[in-house]
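Bug #2210: token dump truncated for NADP-dependent oxidoreductase domain-containing protein?
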Amino acid sequence: MAEKVEDTFTLPDGQKIPVLAFGTWQVSGDKIKEVLPLALDTGYRHIDTAYSYGNEEAIGDVLHDYFAQDKLKRADVFVATKLWMTFLAKDDVRQGVEESLRRLRLDYLDLVMIHAPWGFKNRRDGTLFPLDNHGNFELENYDLIDTWKALEQLVTEGKVRSLGVSNFNSVQVDLVNFVAKVPPVVNQVECHAYLPQKELQEFCAKRGVRLSAFAPLGSPGRPEHLITDGEPVLLQESVLQAIGAKYGKTPAQVLLRSLTQRGIITISKSITPSRIKENFEIFDFTLAAEDMMAIGKLRNNHRFFTFHKMAGAHPQYPFNIAF
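Reproduced locally. Full output below:
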């Protein structure tokens, strides 16, 4: 068997981050209480959630039980969450982060990311997806520099260890990076073999920002309203089947390994016990250069999450430029 490969990265601020995260988008409170213990027992030590996922309280309950029973210590688990777009006003940032801390039952968060660069109107009633009478999203254009400075204050207070962004393009990364006293260390974006984000990765690396990949398998479990007729299906690509057969691995394991091998934090999400275990078994092999090149040829720049209906009209919509 091949030598065990790197399963943590060291961020520029010194924090160690597990390469593979257990993703929790679309996993309800009851379901997360069922599957998160499976993930923790399998060996996942990085949990990726968000204020808007509606499962922070359930995750907090599971973690609290593990800590109380001495199954794990707080320092053993890297918890990442995201500041929702209704909290981007400088005076609302604290409320959003402290609410996540309360729900997760934690004294500090390992990583907080701005969920997206566009803002939603804060109705002050808990509405996460504000719509007007015509069904259009109620957008707000917040000053992201002010948002960042408010997040930095929470780092100073010890409530947050590291800061990052999500769904930011290169211009938006620099907007924050130029003014940051606490620089962003992660940019979480859609990233997979169809959309490898090589240019954005190279750009971010020069600024000490590591990419984190969501939808690494092409998000086969995303809701129907996000699926377009005729879309390519990443997991069905024959080249992945062939490479998997070579290593005794599945196409999913090949895709996950290809990203981590590129130095990308990778978010693996499943609610199926066998796949939770399978997705974690990617640290006992290394893809050969010719296999990485073959995977690279799958690039077609297809984006499964355009967010166009949600934010296409916003001045900070990130996908109007190449990267």
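Output looks complete on our side. The chain has eleven helices and twelve strands. Marking as cannot-reproduce; reopen if the truncation happens again.
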